[in-house]
Amino acid sequence: MHDITRPTRLVGLSGSLRKASYSRATLSGLRDNLPLSIDLEICDLQLPLYNEDEDRADGPEQVRLLRKAIGASDGVVIVTPEYNHGIPGVLKNALDWASRPFGKSVLIDKPVLVITVSPAFTGGVRAHAQVNETLLSIPARIMAGPQVVLGGIATKVKGGIVDTHYLAFTLEAIDRLATMSRQRT
Ligand SMILES: Cc1cc2nc3c(=O)[nH]c(=O)nc-3n(C[C@H](O)[C@H](O)[C@H](O)COP(=O)(O)O)c2cc1C
To answer: Which of 43, 105, 118, 171 has the fewest Cβ atoms within 10 angstroms?
Structure first.
């Protein structure tokens, strides 16, 4: 059961590696607006490509750090673009690493909020469905409820989240994730 005397610890994963990424800016914008009761640590997904031969206790350092951060967290916030109507390779690769060892993944039963962003009005909704499908297979605990699909992101995020409706909507979702993680047994 979650110890309510400490902040809820969330880990943020961005499906885009580029410096000016809207996904990453959405994550940092959220982090900068969270109540004191919630911490959000953004993790680096610059990982080698998944290779089962390398997936050992002494495997890649970045992978060990990612697994450790997810394992120590109360929940995960994924913010990702859609690439060619699907999940970007960077994110799929990270989830594949985090999904192992089979049956002992740090993502098993972990509360996860998925947010997709796009400059298009479609908001990355097809990638959203694919990320959920991957999380189901692990199985992580996907946060149900209103889907956070943010379209027209180029005018809504500049450094941080400048659109007040988007900010309020995503903060509400984070609040529901924190509640869900506190209720976890
Ligand atoms: C390889 C590639 C494929 C893309 N495919 C889609 C797509 O299918 N749907 C979409 O809405 N945007 C697509 N885009 C546009 C991205 O949504 C846009 O570049 C976005 O800003 C990327 O996210 P980021 O800002 O977090 O890097 C694509 C971009 C790239 C580079």
So the answer is: 171
